[in-house]
Amino acid sequence: MTAGREASAARQRRLRQRMLAAGFATRSATRQNKTSEIPPSTRLSEVLRDLGPLYIAFGSYLANRPDLAPLGSCLALRGVENGLQPTPTDEIRRVLRSAGGPLRELRQSISESPIGVSSTYQWHRIDLGGDGQGVVKIVRPEFEHQASSDTDALAVFEEFVLWDDPRRPIDISCALSEFRSGLGRCLNLNEQAQDLSDASEWVSPSDELELRPDIARLRSARVVVSDLPNEDFVGDRLSHDSLGDHSDLGRCLATAWLHLALIDGVCFEHIDPWDIVVQPNGGFAFLGGLASLPDRRSRNDLLRYLTASAQHEPDRACAFLVRLSEATEGRRSQDYLRIQLRQATPFRDGSWSEPIRGERLAHTLLLHWRLARSNGYAPSRALAAFEHGVSGMAHLSEALAPTDDAFEQAVADTRVVAAAVDVRKRLGPTTLLRFVRRLLGSLDHLAHNSDELIRRVEASESSDSDEAVSQHSIRWKPLVAILVAALTSAWALRVVSSGQGAGAWIEPTTTVVLLILVIAYILVVERSRTRPG
Q1: List of E strands, 79-120
Q2: Around Cβ 52, how many Cβ atoms within 10 Å?
């Protein structure tokens, strides 16, 4: 135990010396070191790149958290993974051999060159024999080694001034805490694959997206193999400048991600381009990543919050943002936060000084979340996962569609899809049958009441009794006509939302309901007409 503490202290001393050599000043210093003209975020990116994959992964995480760090710092840190050297293929084969089982036999069939590299993972194509081609995702051994030894050394960053703008400091303590808590899931691919497989069993079917369960017999804690539906990764699109602007791809990808998060409850918190495959039909297959499952109420509140923000309604946005947050000690009033959201635009905040191609919805959301944190509203688990995912997805969609606000367009698309899904659920066979039973019961009750009314009118000697009976009979016509028209419209909506033509598909339950209503209409009206007197 003593040796472990001494080794950890030695690593912290080396990191502290490296930071001082890079020109960083400690928080306890009376004045900052002004000798370097290079912004702190740029120097931090260089230091992290030199320290190794664990530190690069932390920089990459911080780059996708503009709610915790100034946007200028995030933009500077987004290049921290550029130019990463891959792990040698022989080392990857040793990892497969140590995994044992079927993975051991596949070590000779992996591609010599990786198709993708990040600070945490490496991807190779692999031959699955009779099962066709696949892709193997492996935790980089260097990252695993540093994660087991250097995690405590990350605390040294809290001692230094890391931000470009003193008015907008990096919330380094919160960032370190959240990064450490997610390390276990980054290292356990078996858990990630199981979550993805479980989610794929109940996610609603869609032509635009798919959750592909990983091959169960070909995975371990450090390795996971997925069957490959298509060789066109999103990472390929981003790796070739000659492919140009992919505005449609950016919008469709953001829409697919929002569909999964807000309709199906599968929120991918960490977006990696090499875990997303473009399918032949233009849809997407998600092969991996960290996923959480927010509850239905949180999903509804998130969709309403996004809608209000996109429509520039800060009061409604504030109400739903507060519902999605948890109050902390020192929380300010909702009215105070609402006033700040009314006045908030990205370019009124001092940290949004980097050149940006126009105001984007994702930037506004991140500013909302930063204001909420500073006013004592911590994000709930569902909102925190959504925040992480929005940062990554907005960055990816902006890279694919630099001239459009693909994320805002995706929010509009998701609202339409969510409305169609809601209509289909409400007009499902079970719901329709329940409605028909209640309607027929009401019609039967009304028929008995009409008999009683007619009997009383016949017993009356008033000259206006015949006119009253006639008017009562006539009122059935518009009532039943309205019911028939309403259900016909609902049936048409169901056909449209299903994406099929009326000639190709007719809901049998809806047809039966319409026939029952027509028969009920004929019986009730004719019964009242043919009554003597």
Answers
A1: 116-117
A2: 15
Q: How many CB atoms lie within 10 A of CB 254?
A: 28
Maximum Cα interatomic distance, the chain, rounded to a whole number of Å: 109
Of 180, 190, 222, 221, the closest CA to residue 57 belongs to 180
Q: Residue 228 — very low, low, confident or very high, per pLDDT cuts 50/70/90?
A: confident
Rounded Cα–Cα distance for residues 120 and 23 (Å): 28
Confidence (pLDDT) at 485:
62
Question: Residue 58's pLDDT band (boundaries 50, 70, 90)?
Answer: very high
Find, among 353, 274, 345, the residue nearest to 75 by Cα. 353
Confidence of residue 490 (pLDDT cuts 50, 70, 90): low
Q: Are strands 291-292 and 284-286 parallel, antiparallel or unpaired?
A: unpaired
On whether the CB atoms of residues 144 and 222 are closer than 8 A, the answer is yes
Q: Alpha-carbon dihedral of residues 184, 189, 191, 193, nearest 10 degrees? A: 150
Tokens of 347: 């370019």
pLDDT at position 504: 36
Helices (H), 125-188: 141-149, 172-187
Q: What is the average pLDDT score of the chain?
A: 77
Quote the pTM value: 0.74
Taken in order 78, 363, 353, 155, the sign of the CA dihedral is negative
Distance, in Å, from the CA atom of 14 to the CA atom of 69, rounded to the nearest integer, reads 25
Buried b (16+ CB within 10 A) or exposed e, 31-47: eeeeeeeeebbbbbbeb
Q: Facing residues of 226 across strands?
A: 135
In 260-400, alpha helices (H): 296-310, 314-323, 334-343, 361-374, 381-400
Q: Please give the backbone phi and psi of residue 138, each rounded to the nearest 5 degrees, phi first.
A: -130, 135
Q: 369 with 379: CB under 8 angstroms? A: yes
Q: What is the pLDDT of residue 525?
A: 58
pLDDT band for position 79 (cuts 50, 70, 90): confident
Measured in degrees and rounded to the nearest 5, phi and psi for residue 39 equal -55, 145
| Structure tokens, 167 | 């008015």
Q: How far apart are CA 450 and CA 409, in angstroms?
A: 54
Does the pLDDT at position 501 exceed 70? no
